[in-house]
Amino acid sequence: MKRKLVVANWKMNGDRARNRVLLDYILGGMPSGVDCAVCVPFPYLPQVGEILEGRAIALGAQDVSEFSGGAYTGDVSAAMLADWRVRFVVVGHSERRALHLESDDVVGRKAAAALGSGLTPIVCVGETLAERESGAAEQVLLRQLDALAAVLPSELQRVVVAYEPVWAIGTGRAATAEQVQEVLYFVRRWLARHVEDANQVRILYGGSVKPDTARQLFGLPDANGGLIGGASLEAQPFLEICRAAASSARSS
Ligand code: PEP
């Protein structure tokens, strides 16, 4: 798979005026040869969906309910997202795992709900610094991935996996290329045991990706793109990251 996927995660940022300006710049400079999605807060899905209508950037959300409907105040179902033509949804982001106590099983069920409505879940996995330093990183990743396999045996082929070491998110401290490739390869081998064609599943890296590190990270043998937080909130760095993804796909 040659084309890389670059996904913006705006987190809880933006307002209607800023969203429009930011997207106008991004749409004006988006290079060809890269797939791109923007995951925005729920209230902005209609606005951003309209701006992206017919354009080369896909609409994404940042969470989805594991339930299909009913008495779940504050939740948003996968069918509701699909109704707004959302294509991607982030599930299991470490901020949700930590702040909303989402377990591996819940994350698996959210991914299943997304797939059930035709969305592509971007499933985030990753270890904390303490887990890495105690040598437990692979064990944690395995637990997170196995929970996914339990829910989605026949549909895993359609997920996107994002490796996001918790200690690299929003810290300015990206993992080294060597650390990233080691885990991406670990994920690829895990996929090979669970899906028909592991090379067709996209694995992204996320965690303080910046324009100056993007090219090297995206050029890693098992990297199919990136999940970008802070650097996706301004057009210039985000576009540079997209260009790095496009050019690393060309040279691979
Ligand atoms: C993220 O929140 O998914 C993320 C990768 O954030 P940042 O790029 O700011 O580290």
Which characteristics define this entry?
single chain; 252 residues; alpha/beta; eight-stranded parallel barrel; 43% helix
TL;DR of this structure?
The protein is of the alpha/beta class.
Question: How does this structure look, described?
Answer:
With 252 residues, the chain is of the alpha/beta class. The protein has a single domain (4-251), classed as Aldolase class I (TIM Barrel, Alpha-Beta Barrel). The chain is 43% helix and 15% strand. The protein contains ten helices and eight strands. It has helices at 16-29, 45-52, 78-83, 94-99, 104-116, 129-133, 137-151, 177-192, 211-218, 235-251, and strands at 4-9, 34-39, 57-61, 88-91, 120-125, 160-163, 203-206, 225-228. The protein has an eight-stranded parallel beta barrel, surrounded by six helices. Helix 9 (211-218) runs parallel beside helix 10 (235-251). The structure holds phosphoenolpyruvate. Phosphoenolpyruvate binds next to strand 8. Phosphoenolpyruvate is lined by residues 9, 11, 164, 169-170, 206-209, 227-231.
